[in-house]
Every structure is written in C-alpha cells, then in structure tokens.
Specification:
With 222 residues, the chain is mainly α. It has a domain of 147 residues: Transferase(Phosphotransferase), domain 1 (Orthogonal Bundle). Helix content is 42%, strand content 5%. The protein contains 9 helices and 4 strands, in the order ββββααααααααα. A two-stranded antiparallel ribbon has the order 1-4. It has a two-stranded antiparallel ribbon with strand order 2-3. The protein is globular, with a radius of gyration of 18 Å. Keywords: Kinase, Transferase. Pfam families: Pkinase.
C-alpha cells in the first residue's frame, strides 16, 4: 500500500466543478510504499498541523498517519478552521501529541454527533486504535448520510473556509519566494509583511476566543 504522508486540503483536487465530481489526490512527493500494515520509522515528513502524534514522537508509523490527517481535514471542512493551531510549532506539536482539540460553540452546535464521532475516531492518539480507511467508509456518517448528516447550510463555515484558503495561498506564495531567493534577509522582510497583513480583516474570532491566524509552513522536527 501507499502512505501519502502529506494529506491536506490543498492536495485534494476536484476533477471538475460539477456536483459530485471525483476527488483527485495530488502531490505524492513524500509518499512511501509499505507492505500491508508495516510500520517503521520512515523519517520526519509532512505539514505541521496535519502531523500525527506518532510521527512527532518519532515512533514507527504507517497507514494510520493518513487517517489522522483525514481527521484534521474533515474538521476543517466542517467549520473552516483547524483542530490544532499555534504560532509556535513546539506548542502546536504538544497540542497534537496530547490530542488537545474540542468542538467549540457556536460553530459545532449544528454538526451532528455522528460527524464528531468520526472525527474522534480519526484523531485517536493511539494509531493501533485509530479508525482505518475501510472502517471509516462503513461509519454511519458516511454510509447513512440521508439519516444522520445535518442538512443545515452554514454560511459562516463557507466564509471561514474562504478565509482559510486565502491565508494558505498567501503563505504559499511567500514560501515559494523564500525557496527561490534563499536569502535570509529577504525572507524576514516577507514574513514581517505577512504578519502585518494578517493583523487586518483576515483574522477569524472563534467562539469569542482570541483571534486565530492559520498558517501552512514547513515542518521543523520537534
């Protein structure tokens, strides 16, 4: 089998703009091939907010890392912001290793218990107890959507997703420039400009909590 190791929204593409279009998985640059349920230390790889606890602990890992990332993606798609976030990567990694996420009000009030249950099963710290892809496809929220999925359309979620995507694109453009120039002083200027931009309307306040800004930046080993 194949372990992608870098699943995130920007690596999920739609074959067309039509409703029900097939989803295509992109960017297999970090993917590895494993035999069955093989687990080993294949190296540190991925995007910070989507890394699994076992990767951060530098434990042997395998297919379950992709299911963890799917849980993060599902969380984002339902409310428009990630389950784990901190400007400081060390604190972010501590959150992930502790499985420290929740379903705050009011964003999650209209999300069904079945959807939350699937996320909980995907974001299980112990990879041996984490739901598998086969099991996930049999979960009620997937196979009984007509009876358990919420029909309530939340414009707030759509707006949050648009903001989340806009920040991702901005950060991606800056990182591309960083890699192209390989100039430290230029990088610092760009990052400072990015911070100034994100102090403006693109800051999202969640449930009355402190403003959160969402980045997609290279992973640094813990």
């Amino acid at each position: 089998g194949v372990v992608h190791r870098d699943l995130k929204p920007e690596n999920l593409l739609l074959a067309s703009k039509l409703k029900g279009a097939a989803v295509k998985l992109a960017d297999f640059g970090l993917a590895i091939e494993v035999q069955g349920d093989q687990q080993a230390w294949f190296g540190f790889a991925g995007t910070p907010g989507y890394l699994s606890p076992e990767v951060l602990r530098k434990d042997p890992y395998g297919k379950p890392v992709d299911m963890w990332a799917c849980g993060v993606i599902l969380y984002i798609l339902l409310v428009g912001y990630p389950p784990f976030w901190d400007e400081d990567q060390h604190r972010l990694y501590q959150q992930i290793k502790a499985g420290a996420y929740d379903f705050p009000s009011p964003e999650w009030d209209t999300v069904t218990p079945e959807a939350k249950d699937l996320i909980n099963k995907m974001l299980t710290i112990n990879p041996a107890k984490r739901i598998t892809a086969t099991e996930a496809l049999k979960h009620p929220w997937i196979c009984q959507r007509s009876t358990v999925a919420s029909m309530m359309h939340r414009q707030e979620t759509v707006d949050c997703l648009k903001k989340f995507n806009a920040r991702r694109k901005l950060k991606g453009a800056i990182l591309t420039t960083m890699l192209a120039t390989r100039n430290f002083s230029t990088t610092r200027i760009l990052m400072n400009k990015n911070n100034d931009v994100e102090k403006n309307p693109h800051t999202t306040v969640i449930g009355g909590a402190h403003p959160k800004k969402y980045y997609s930046y290279p992973a640094v080993e813990p």
